[in-house]
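hey m, so remember when u said the tokens were messed up on ur end? i reran from scratch. heres the input so u can diff it against urs
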Amino acid sequence: MLFPNHMPFQYFLFDTYPGYFLQILPFAVFVGLTYAMLKFRRDRKTPLRRKLCSVLFVCYLTELICLVLALDLVWNLWYRILYRRPSGETIRFFSGAFNFVPDFFRHMRRNETIGNILAFLPFGVLYPLSKDGVTWKRTISAGFLCSAGIEILQPIVGRAFDVNDLILNTSGALISASVFYALSGFLKKIASAS
């Protein structure tokens, strides 16, 4: 059983990572569909598979960015829609919190560490599938830059810049890109040998 019987819907939606994901999913789908309409209308040369992968990548990035930078806004919006009253939670801006010292071995909770790695696993696969001629090194660099951009913006939306998150996010992109490129190389060798 995925969720215990005693876990109410409100707890699931407003206090768990899968719930946060579900809150943001409609926005990610909307952005992805809008991107798809523009991409499919203008671009006649790119193969359908690559177009679909680029749409998935846009959905993934929207989900990721909203989850990290706009969760409070989305949370308050869903609370107001579902309960027809304000949540009572205030949206904070400009926290100014910065952590430049890597200390995830001592101070990070296990689910945070795993969550930061898992959040960037799709990056290492979707990024090379959505663009033509992308290398392993460029995929890792793009994952690092995406994570760095998110971390730099977090203090503006009331969260903290944390070098631990940057390292763990980049590790997630590194792991998935390494597996993806190793598997791609292996499949190409098999196809060329046949």
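this time it looks ok to me. The chain has two domains: 1-91, 93-194. if urs says something different then somethings off w ur setup not the seq
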